[in-house]
Specification:
Shape: globular
CATH class: Mainly Alpha
Radius of gyration: 20 Å
CATH superfamily: Hypothetical protein af1432
Number of strands: 0
Order of helices and strands: HHHHHHHHHHH
Oligomer: single chain
Distance between the termini: 32 Å
Structural class: mainly alpha
Length: 231
């Protein structure tokens, strides 16, 4: 920016410079979001039998977070963390990740490291610092029996507590290689049964109070939904 002795001119130049900076930051954030979307698609491609999982759990989590009245800024963080929850699986050998039979105990221990790996991948990216905590905590349980750190109650990030409900909903109502999808009623019953153990009771209450049609509507719309529309 050139120097000017005219205060009005200097103010005008500063405004122009600030405008350019905002544009640059906006373009940078858009690039980040497109990269995040690509990473999510890569994760889905490594788990082809459950294609669309990242999108569905993100959409479900956003719906719950909105119903809880969380501010948009918080919802954006949750969306990023949930969408990238399995990013650490990129560091897991395909021999384990794609094994068609039951994993051995040692293999299970390796797979469980994906939460930590994902955290390590994201924690130093400024736009993903908060989201990385969700990635790190997405297998924790409300009663403290989860992994990798055995976090309990509200020490688990709220985004991870919301994800736990959304993930179980998707797992129960989706098709899998060795099982058929179960009904929404069964999913609701399972989530209610595990309130206070696997799930945060407050999140469960919000989920159970939401109209049942929202979940089927979201599934029907998911093919045309892009995470970058929110992020």
């Amino acid at each position: 920016m050139s120097e000017s002795n005219d205060p009005a001119e200097a103010t005008k130049e500063l405004a122009i410079e600030n405008g350019r900076l905002k544009t640059d930051l906006s373009n940078l954030e858009r690039s980040y979001n497109l990269t995040l979307e690509l990473m999510g698609h890569v994760l889905d491609s490594k788990n082809a039998e459950n294609e669309g999982h990242c999108k569905r759990v993100t959409a479900f989590s956003i719906a719950i977070a909105r119903t809880m009245g969380l501010p948009r800024e918080k919802i954006v963080v949750i969306a990023r963390g949930v969408f990238l929850h399995d990013i650490g699986k990129m560091a897991i050998p395909d021999a384990i990740l794609c094994k068609p039979s039951k994993l051995l105990d040692d293999e299970q221990r390796v797979l469980r490291q994906h939460a930590y790996y994902g955290y390590q991948m994201l924690k130093n990216i400024p736009i993903l610092v908060e989201a990385s905590e969700i990635v790190y905590s997405h297998h924790e349980r409300f009663d403290g029996t989860g992994y990798p750190r055995g976090l309990k109650g509200e020490t688990i990030p709220l985004g991870a507590r919301i994800f736990a409900v959304a993930d179980t909903l998707d797992a129960i109502t989706s098709d899998h290689p060795f099982s058929f999808p179960r009904t929404l009623r069964e999913a609701r019953g399972e989530i209610e049964k595990c309130s206070g153990s696997q799930f945060d009771p407050e999140v469960v209450k919000v989920f159970l109070d939401m109209p049942e049609t929202i979940w089927s509507d979201l599934r029907n719309e998911i093919d045309g939904w892009q995470p970058t529309q929110l992020m």
